[in-house]
Amino acid sequence: MLEEVENKEKDSNMPNFQTLQAIVSHFQKLFDVPSLNGVYPRMTEVYIRLGEMNNAVRNLQELLELDSSTSLCVLVSTVGKLCRLINEDMNEQVKRVLGPEDLQRYLFKKFARYHP
């Protein structure tokens, strides 16, 4: 990549070699790329991961019937609320099946097992 820039004629729109070298060096630090040969493969990996993340976000927004402009913060918060609701519902179902006395007895046995 840097060789391509060195070989091109100087163009007013083309950043100078030192600027490009600084950009590549910064990328190497950000994405833990020890050698120049690893820059292109890591760029590809970052691009692929970004695409996967964007697809996951779009899928979650669609499943949760959220607007496509919904922020990641709101998306994560919505997923968290959904998980809490599911857990609360599961706890209620266990209480209904076991009954309060059975559940309390079970919890005391577990507690006594780990805290003699």
From TrEMBL:
Top-level taxon: Eukaryota
Keywords attached to this entry: Coiled coil, Cytoplasm, Cytoskeleton, TPR repeat
Main location: cytoplasm
InterPro entries linked to this entry: CEP70, TPR_rpt
GO molecular function: gamma-tubulin binding
One GO CC annotation: centrosome
GO biological process: cilium assembly; regulation of microtubule cytoskeleton organization
Quaternary structure note: Directly interacts with tubulin-gamma; this interaction determines centrosomal localization.
Name of the featured protein: Centrosomal protein of 70 kDa
Species assigned in the record: Rousettus aegyptiacus
